[in-house]
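Example (one chain per record):
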Amino acid sequence: MHDDKPRLLADNHLFGVETRKYFEKLQEKRGLDKSVITHGWIIAYLYHTTIVEKQSVYQKDVEKKMHLPRSTATTILQKFEREGMVRRVSVDGDARLKRIELTPGGVEFYNNTITDFEETEARARRGITDEEYEQFLKILDKMRSNFEKEEC
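Predicted structure:
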């Protein structure tokens, strides 16, 4: 990018593009349909929260965690349902409330996706020490919290 432009935003954008391209190539190489990387993160969130932590997840939780508008979350979750990766289960006492559960197909998608995420991250971390990586994450957390503290 140009030296007169804010590097953080430009470099962050380019890093995102490169990691997405690498991730998609991994999926393609393994014979998987290229998924949108966000779909992988949503499935990973559902896996970790519902299976590992054994907590219930609802659409509003997905919207909040992934910073998605309601309409986008609805579209993605409906796609997951059509593809047999999740099911919505009615909650006793409130027919309107539907808990989201992973199906065996969703767990399989998670297993394939997390492998590709791990390989993508390993590629990005080449030549970076654990100490440098931890420092980078601390700085990134501080930068992100700057946006959480105040509104524009």
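Caption: The two ends are 26 Å apart (CA to CA).
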